[in-house]
From TrEMBL:
Domain of life of the native organism: Bacteria
Catalytic activity, as annotated: cytidine + H2O + H(+) = uridine + NH4(+); 2'-deoxycytidine + H2O + H(+) = 2'-deoxyuridine + NH4(+)
Family: Belongs to the cytidine and deoxycytidylate deaminase family.
Residues annotated as binding substrate: 49-55
Domain CMP/dCMP-type deaminase intervals: 8-148
Protein name (database record): Cytidine deaminase
Binding site for Zn(2+): 60, 102, 105
NCBIfam families registered for this protein in UniProt: cyt_deam_tetra, PRK05578.1
Molecular function terms, GO-annotated: cytidine deaminase activity; zinc ion binding
Organism: Sphingomonas koreensis
Keyword Glycoprotein: no
Residues annotated as catalytic: 62
Amino acid sequence: MNDEISDEIAGTLIAAAREAARHAHAPYSNFAVGAALLMTDGSIVTGTNFENASYGLSLCAETVAAARANAEGRLRDIVAVGIIGGMMRGGVAHGTEPIRPCGRCRQVLNEAAQMGGRDLTVYCAGAEGETYETHRLSELLPHAFGPADLGIGG
Ligand code: THU
């Protein structure tokens, strides 16, 4: 993929993630996260964090997006992920420092990656989305344990 195409995909995913983050349910941390998954057919599946009054039950944006893709029968079809996040002020997330997926989300995304038989590109941005980092999931979660270890997927 050349840089221009990659930039365009990253921009589209980051914009979709920013839009999703507007719906974050994050009254406890006040930290809004949005995730957008690029699917093999070019469509986008989004998720946002969904906190719970019993704090430990909170769900991250990437996990919600992956579960949503799975619910649509499309777990194997994820190609790339865009993630944004930042502290909310006046109902809007702020910040320029890119956020990277937490450890649990890396493992959840790895489930989708191995089931689909492809590594995922992960674009990480701050809430304001103007700059981003590009990673491979295999670099964020090296030597991953996954469905392949149980003889499933790929
Ligand atoms: N969060 C995500 O949604 N994704 C991550 O990868 C890191 C953290 C959420 C969880 C919680 O609602 C808030 O950000 C602060 O940790």
